[in-house]
Amino acid sequence: MILLHARSGRTAGAAGTWAFLGRDSLSLFSWQDKLGSGWNRLDLSRELAQTADSLRRPYTEWVESLSAAHGADPAWWTTEFAERNSFSSPFFLHLCQLVLLRRLASEKRLPDLAVCESWGQLRSLAAMLGQTPGPGLQPLMDMAKLIIRMAQILLSSAVAFHAARSTRQTPTAFPKTQKPRALISTFAHDSCLAEDGKFRDRYFRDLAKRLEEKGLEVWILPYICEISRPRTELLRWLRQSPSRLIIKEDWITWTDVAGALLGGARSLFLPRQTPPFQGLDIKPLAREMRLRQARSPEAFESRLLLRLLPRLKEAGFCPDLVLSWFENQRQDKALALAARQAFPKADHVGVLCALPNPNYMTMFPTLAEARCGALPGRVVCCGSHQAEVLDLFGSNVAISVGAALRYQYLWEDNAGAISSGPRTAFIPLPSRLGEAVELIESLRPVLSGQTGIERWWIRPHPDYGMADLRSALGKRPWPAQLEVSPHPLQESLRQSSVVLSAGSGALAEAACMGLPVMAVGRLADLDFDPMAYFPDICRVCRGPEEISQELRRILNLSDSERQLLKEKGAQLRGRCFARENEQTLASYWTESRQREVPCGR
Q1: For residue 91, what are the CA distances in angstroms to 83, 289, 292?
Q2: CA distance 366 to 375
Q3: Rounded CA gap, 447 and 507, in Å?
Q4: Which phi and psi angles does 362 have, rounded to 5°?
Q5: Helix (H, G, I), strand (E, B) or coil at 90
Q6: Of 183, 328, 458, 526, which alpha carbon lies 20 to 30 A from 451's?
């Protein structure tokens, strides 16, 4: 078998079978065009999904053994290894592909060519097959990337400090108060900056207002992401807002920045050793991951968070309640560690308001994370289903159910009122541009087929626009059948006959409304299907024939079958999106733990 890197300019003959080992759909399509019709790509997606099913627990146990050795070091919890985020990191995917290729080799089913998106993956695969790839210039290029990223972080920090200093008109200080305090750690997007100057929380909605009504003084720590305003203009807006907002650059110092950068250098050596995985030598893959985590901006921000909360404590800020968005990512682990250190008496509540899927392993906490203090004191889930599956790996963290703050519209009287009209397939596109292109290409042969669909609507994700999407398609023409929905998400769902996507949470919302839904399987990546725990409601379909067949089946559902879907949708809503009431809201605060003499008095 010939091994080539995805960025290689080489070709491999006129014809044969080939496999793409990676997740970059744009690269996959580029190689498909480059190789031409003489090369037949092996569809390994179904076998890859089965391999992932069999490896999730062994992989978690492998990481747990590393966490047992390194968990006392806070820097460990900001690494990609400890995070186990198979959505943002390709490490677990590459391990699955290695194990799958080993099985294909034993069955003498290897393709003639394998295109690898990762040098570490290529070298690990070559070692498994007894091949010896040349050293190349990749180590030098990786080191250059690390130096460039460190320089970029220093520059962006300097810009942020300058913007903070130029917009600050009064000394930073927390006023004295007789009230107990709450800290809400959340994400800030353009949509959060309302015209009236108030911070509109996309995730916690009006929870801050409700806490204020309970007598708490609420402060918000925004994690800035996807904001188009220049930094100075953004900080000026934040300072003028009537909401109590904590701007991190007001509190951290250059010493903290230096410490976070040194933490990145240290992560080049974490973990100190790389044990085999499933009998495979994966040292090249692990070496590549160490370099990636050392230059990661997300890891840098997480290490800053470890330093920020103690700075707030030094300034007299000591909340009784800490609420944070929880998916158990690096920043969540860092916040948990920092809160335990700075605010040991605070009630730290991690809020999970999303649907877990088996391949998104970071969401499932582990015992090592709990023992090392890398988890909140308790987790509030937006539904009983999440609470049931969350402790899959036995962390024993306290879990309860609270109101699904983002999804209360599903309980409105007209939420399930479906419009009659043309038979419409609605396609909410995934958050990553490459995945969106992949979904369009997977559906291209279906669009012109005999499915019974009269109108195809798409909705780009807010992270990119139509211009980005058309550009990513490259030379491939835009499918004439696809139209951008003229309506917001909720109205688009109401006017749909069926909803298709690959990893969009809108599938669950549509299913709750009683709509037929379908998940389109990935071509080369893992499936991140939010409906994976409900296969009786949402099937994963792969390939044009299977997708078309499922569409025809859905359009021909009988009245009794549609009624059954509505009943299942109502049950799904009840299990996954708890209705707002006094009891479910009370899960977010524990009045019995508020101190008699609040901090800051």
Answers
A1: 11, 7, 11
A2: 9
A3: 20
A4: -60, -25
A5: coil
A6: 526
pLDDT band of residue 10 (cuts 50, 70, 90) is confident
Spatial separation of the C-alpha atoms in residues 247 and 170, rounded to whole Å = 13
Q: Determine the distance from the C-alpha atom of residue 303 to the mean position of all C-alpha atoms in its chain, rounded to a whole number.
A: 19
β-pairing verdict for 16-21 and 498-501: unpaired
Tell me the CA distances in angstroms from 141 to 136, 225, 465, one per residue in order.
10, 28, 32
Tell me how far apart the alpha carbons of residues 81 and 88 are, in angstroms, rounded to a whole number.
12
Residue with tokens 């996507």, as numbered in its chain: 501
DSSP secondary structure code for residue 315 in this structure: T
Does the bond joining 271 to the residue before it have cis omega, within 30 degrees of 0? yes
Quick one: tokens of 512? 């709750």
Cβ proximity of 204 and 227 under 8 Å: no
Q: Alpha carbon of 13 to those of 18, 35, 109, 136, 210: distances in Å?
A: 11, 9, 19, 22, 66
pLDDT digits over 583-599, tens only?
999 999 874 344 444 44
Each residue of 122-161: pLDDT tens digit?
999 999 999 887 656 677 788 888 899 999 999 999 999 9
Does residue 356 contact residue 505 with C-beta atoms inside 8 Å?
Answer: no
* Burial (Cβ within 10 Å: 0-12, 13-18, ≥19) of residue 370: middle
Q: Give the tokens for residue 548.
A: 């078309």
**Which DSSP symbol is given to 18?**
E
Domain 178-248+318-404+579-601: top CATH class:
alpha beta
Amino acid (1-letter code) at residue 250: D
pTM here is: 0.93
Q: Tokens 């203009």 appear where?
A: 233
Closest to 218 in 3D by CA, of 208, 205, 210:
208
Q: How confident is the model at residue 228 (pLDDT cuts 50, 70, 90)?
A: confident
| Strands lying side by side in the sheet with 455-459 | 482-484, 455-459, 424-428, 498-501, 517-520, 538-541
Domains 178-248+318-404+579-601 and 424-576 share a fold: yes
Domain boundaries of the chain, sorted by first residue: 2-136, 178-248+318-404+579-601, 424-576
Q: How many CA atoms lie within 13 A of 357 on its CB side?
A: 23
What does the CA dihedral 522, 525, 528, 533 come to, rounded to 10 degrees? 80
**Which H helix or E strand runs over 338?**
helix 330-342
424-576 under CATH 3.30.70.260, yes or no: no
Assess contact for 356 and 389: CB atoms under 8 A.
yes
Q: Containing H/E element for 571? A: helix 559-576
> How open is the CA angle 257-301-308, to the nearest 5 degrees?
65
Give the chain's end-to-end CA distance (angstroms, integer): 71
Q: From residue 122, how far is each of 118, 131, 277, 564 by CA, in Å?
A: 6, 10, 16, 49
- Strand order across the beta sheet in which 2-5 lies: 2-5, 113-116, 16-21, 39-41
